[in-house]
Design a protein that fits this description.
seven-stranded mixed beta sheet; alpha/beta; five-stranded mixed beta sheet; globular; 2 domains; Aspartate Aminotransferase, domain 1; 12 strands; binds pyridoxal-5'-phosphate; Aspartate Aminotransferase, domain 2
Length: 426
């Protein structure tokens, strides 16, 4: 039965049997007991499925991963301890030293550093392209050793909407997968697999958790990419000596990528979430559609208010007609984008500081996408090391404010923004 997403958020991943707990139990156990060494041996050979060590698999974590796989329409998923770990594993699962990856340049700052600094040290080369790149511009970025294309469906913090189909077509024409970070829209507003993406990742720290309690991430496999179509992915299509010569594509078919990520990368690198954090994430997921709908409702009212107030030079909210990205958002996320707005305040850096300091409800925080409205002035915080020229290159002007609209009553948020806008001009 293919339920609607609201129903999947409640039911998917865990179905209690007669007399069992209705809420997903927290299996806070490192290890699992078996009656014979023969039985346990089969698990180690990946011949039987079952639990033996929580770094590889845990029933609580697996139930939550299965729920997110259902929400995205994938065949399998793996939870990670952070969004950063999910980004790293998603690429490292198909690329190694000597390989090359194409990434959108407008991505989360932490992901950019991971790719541009840390993964380069591992010998993986990156080419960064504009998320607005045309097919021709994308073509020019491919090399014979390109193994994947990576981009955000709705970028943080620039709020650029990706033309997913253009990126997917280009990737597939070169026999490589498209990996999408779908953190901002969540599967409630955008399902990248429906537009040709092959792998989806999330920082579950944001809307999925929704309450600012747990850092976490997830990788979801669509099961659609054919790893055997060329010889670019020997890690998936030739025997893994560290696993008794298993060939992932032969043994696991559509689950090859996600099984390798678990059996090899998670085994070797760690970065699992604690079952308790997975439990908290699961509670967040139960109300995700309700919250996302309200975040978008509130944000669109606030964006319109700021635009009409005359205090902003420019307002970016791709869910709002007339905003940058509106047309693409209508195609890829027609029911809403996210709760995040950015705007350039009249009066420059000075006005931006006064605005921030005058807010009563909205908190100043280097975070986005949870229940509480929060606000950030990138030029004086996250990007304060950059020179004015560098700021302009990242698309961040010193009058830019990012507002993550929460689920307080919209009238209260607007009243707060209104008085702070007025105070900003004094
Ligand atoms: C926050 C964020 C990340 C990193 O996730 P963490 O959970 O903080 O490690 C990755 N991508 C996007 C779009 C994010 O907003």
């Amino acid at each position: 039965m293919d339920y609607k997403i609201n129903t999947k958020c409640i039911l998917s991943g865990y179905s209690p049997k007669n007399g069992e707990p209705r809420q997903l139990p927290i299996y806070q156990s490192t290890t699992y007991k078996y009656d014979s060494s023969v039985e346990m041996g089969k698990l180690f050979d990946l011949e039987a499925s079952g639990y033996f060590y929580t770094r590889l698999q845990n029933p609580t974590n697996d139930a939550v991963a299965a729920k997110i796989a259902a929400l995205e329409g994938g065949v399998g998923a793996m939870l990670t301890s952070s969004g950063q770990a999910a980004s790293f594993y998603s690429v490292f699962n198909v690329a190694q030293a000597g390989d090359h990856v194409i990434s959108s340049a407008k991505i989360y700052g932490g992901t950019f550093n991971l790719f541009n600094v840390t993964m380069r040290k591992l010998g993986i080369d990156f080419t960064f392209v504009s998320p607005q790149a045309t097919r021709e511009e994308l073509e020019a970025a491919f090399k014979p050793n390109t193994k994947a294309v990576f981009a955000e469906s709705l970028s943080n913090p620039a709020l650029e909407v990706l033309d997913i189909e253009t990126f997917a077509d280009a990737a597939h024409a070169h026999g490589v997968p498209l990996i999408i970070d779908n953190t901002f829209p969540t599967p409630v507003n955008c399902r990248p697999f429906e537009f040709g993406a092959d792998i989806v990742i999330h920082s579950t720290t944001k809307y999925m958790d929704g309450h600012a309690t747990s850092v976490g991430g997830v990788i979801v496999d669509s099961g659609n990419f054919d790893w055997t179509q060329n010889d670019k992915f020997p890690g998936l299509t030739t025997p893994d000596d560290s696993y008794h010569g298993i060939t992932y594509t032969e043994r696991f078919g559509k689950l090859a990528y996600i099984t390798k990520a678990t059996a090899q990368l998670m085994r070797d690198l760690g970065s699992i979430p604690s079952p308790f954090n997975a439990f908290l994430l699961n509670i967040g997921l139960e109300t995700l559609p309700l919250r996302v709908e309200r975040h978008c409702y509130n944000a669109s009212k606030v964006a319109k208010y700021i635009k009409d107030s005359g205090y902003a030079v420019e307002v970016t909210y791709p869910g709002m007609e007339g905003s940058k990205g509106y047309e693409l958002a209508q195609k890829y996320m027609p029911n809403g984008t996210s709760g995040v707005i950015s705007f350039r305040i009249k009066g420059g850096r000075d006005a931006a500081t006064k605005f921030m300091d005058s807010l009563q409800i909205a908190e100043i925080a280097t975070h986005v996408a949870d229940a509480r409205t929060c606000c950030l002035h990138p030029a004086s915080t996250t990007h304060r090391q950059l020179t004015s020229e560098e700021l302009i290159a990242c698309g961040i002007s010193d009058d830019l404010i990012r507002l993550s609209v929460g689920i307080e009553h919209v009238d209260d948020i607007i009243a707060d923004v209104a008085q702070a806008l007025e105070a900003s001009q004094k």
